[in-house]
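dumping the sequnces here before i forget
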Amino acid sequence: MANNTTHTTEYKVLARVLLVLMFFTFLTISVTTYHLAAFSVTVALLIASVKGFFVLTYFMHLKYESTLLRILVAMIFVLYAVIILITFIDYAFR
Amino acid sequence: MSENVKHIEVHRDDEAAKLGMWLFIFTELLLFGGLFLVYSVFRAKYPANFHEGSLELSVTIGAINTIALLFSSMTIAMALTAMQKNNKKLAMQLIAITLLMATVFLFNKYIEWSAKFEHGLYPGSPLMPHLDRGHLLYFSLYFFMTGLHALHIIVGMVLLSVCFFRVRNGGIHSKKYVQLENGALYWHLVDLIWIFLFPLLYLIT
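..and the predicted 3d for all of it:
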């Protein structure tokens, strides 16, 4: 039965992931009280990316998915990064 | 007589169902990605206005909503675990908690938007054209992005409600749960988008 190969994530693993996500939420809020000026965007996006990574890996089970799916997901983010890069190159040299 | 029992082989491919869901999620990511792109360009152009705009949002409500969504994301992931372990009752309770958290989120959104409406800030209001260009862009993007996200919350609630009733009447069970899995994936996507919306709209100064 190829249908039941899905990995079962234990409750405590999911609970731990939630704790990690909560920690980063409080971190990102407390970081704004320091005026990091130009770095505030970078730091906020960095923290959001870490949170996103945990959601994708554990909540969305990517850790236990096929290599094909993991590559596809990675490629979407690469594609999006390229779109941002091209837009900002266009925007900066206009 | 038992020889007469026929086995009807219904074609079923959970892997393909999940892949299909992921392809849909990719289109959603690019949809919101486009909006984030517009946001980034205008933020780079009008940093002062965007800063002032973000100060008018309540970080507390935003933080409560973030926690509500993160928590609901965990409960729906747990619901899938419960279903895989054939614990029907727990799965239903966890889906119900997820739906409750979604309601909390929408209620907070209602409070937030009402406050903006009272100040005359809403798409197409008489006040909006008189704002600075950066302000106008910030609030237009705020309403469009959070509005589109709230719409996704509502769609997610419908999908998870369907899952709830399918679990109850046995349509989803411990050997066949791909519908719940896909519903959960959609819910995590909604959470994932909010993870980026929250700092960009509420926090960045």
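The two ends of chain A are 57 Å apart (CA to CA).
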